[in-house]
Amino acid sequence: MTRGGARNRSGPGKDPNSLRSAAAGVVLTALPSEGYDGEVPDFPLMAFTVYRWEYEDKRRFQVTDTEATEAFRDRELELWEQAWTYPQACAWISEPWRWNTIAMWVRTQVKCESSEATAADKGSIHRFADQIGMTPAGLKENGWAIARNEVGEKAAEKQNEAAQAPQSSARDRMTVVNGGGEG
Fold first, then answer.
1. Where is this region: Disordered (predicted)?
2. Could you tell me which residue, 155 or 78, shows the higher pLDDT?
3. Which of 62, 72, 144, 170 fits a 20 to 30 Å CA distance from 89?
């Protein structure tokens, strides 16, 4: 039985803004908030075969469901392409050893979209997501941080300010001028 020592996520996390972490050389890798725009690698896993149960003479057996298998593969490839647009993909592209884990996250995600998903499938999504940096804890564990898009934020802020600025009526903008009239 393991005793003592550091474990994954035990104790306070490293704070890149603290002096102690800075002295230890803890630096987060900034991932661009715009995401990855490069070439998407091929999906590394073999096609997943979907089966359905059939009955004949009071016997139950499984047969390949070709239509469901094709739909499953199409959804996997769609989600794989989508995953490679995220900021984390900027780090993944230089780590081919991680691609199978990303693919397993995609496959498990597709499984969990079906009614056939088990509790184990749903539970494993979180572990895969942490490993590939898709959760805040996973980002921290991998030493990544998504950079803020300050230019986009400023533009959105100005639009909000303009939209929230009270519009005054023409009557409110009129001023009373004293004098000038005979009285």
1. 1-20, 155-183
2. 78
3. 72
